[in-house]
Amino acid sequence: MVRSARAVLEAYLHRGSRIIPKPPSDKLARPFGVFTTLKIYPAGDLRGCIGYPEPIKPLNVALAETAILAATEDPRFPPVRPEELDTLTVEVSALTPPVLLDVPKSEIPKHVRIGEHGLILRYGSHSGLLLPQVPVEEGWDVEQFLAYTAMKAGLPPDAWTWPDARIYTFTAEVFSEVEPKGPVKRVM
Fold it and tell me: Which stretch of DSSP H or E encloses residue 186?
């Protein structure tokens, strides 16, 4: 998946070509939620991250689309320039479908596992998502993870406790380049 995402980026940024890699297995032809994350090497600073939280497209299609979107449409950053590719690592997260935490709000922290779960908070038209590796990288506890997910949705940190707020968990298989164009390792 990581090598496919890099190939898509190189084709698009260097030649303007949109390619969709052929799935090497039946599993990659099934719908999956997927995020592509670009990080500046070696610091690890975020350079772009976009994805589909729901399994709405075959993984190979979603992967190609999110790779291009992460490089060109993340509103937090200017588009990636072709000459930057050699300074970026590519990380891919394949997500399980989100599951609603249908428990009392006071019980939610007991059902969130750092290093295993990602979170989605939905409230009205607001939605925020943080991947499972984020609280590990940031050193957050469960309460901080919930608060930052609420803030990612553009809401106050305690929004996860609001009666109409919905919290979903998901897990992810995460793979990343060790260095730009280098070996790929499983992150989680």
Answer: strand 184-186
Which value, to the nearest 10 degrees, does the dihedral of the CA atoms of residues 39, 66, 166, 119 take? -30
Buried b (16+ CB within 10 A) or exposed e, 99-108: eebeeeeeeb
Residues 3-61: tens digit of each pLDDT: 999 999 999 999 999 988 887 778 778 999 999 999 999 999 999 999 999 999 999 99
Distances (CA, A) of 131 to 13, 17, 101, 146, 182: 26, 29, 16, 12, 23
Same-domain pairing of 91 and 103: no
Number of domains in the chain: 2
Same domain, 105 and 178: no
Confirm whether pTM is higher than 0.90. Answer: yes
Q: What is the CATH number of the domain that holds 92?
A: 3.30.700.20
- The 3-state DSSP class for residue 56 equals strand
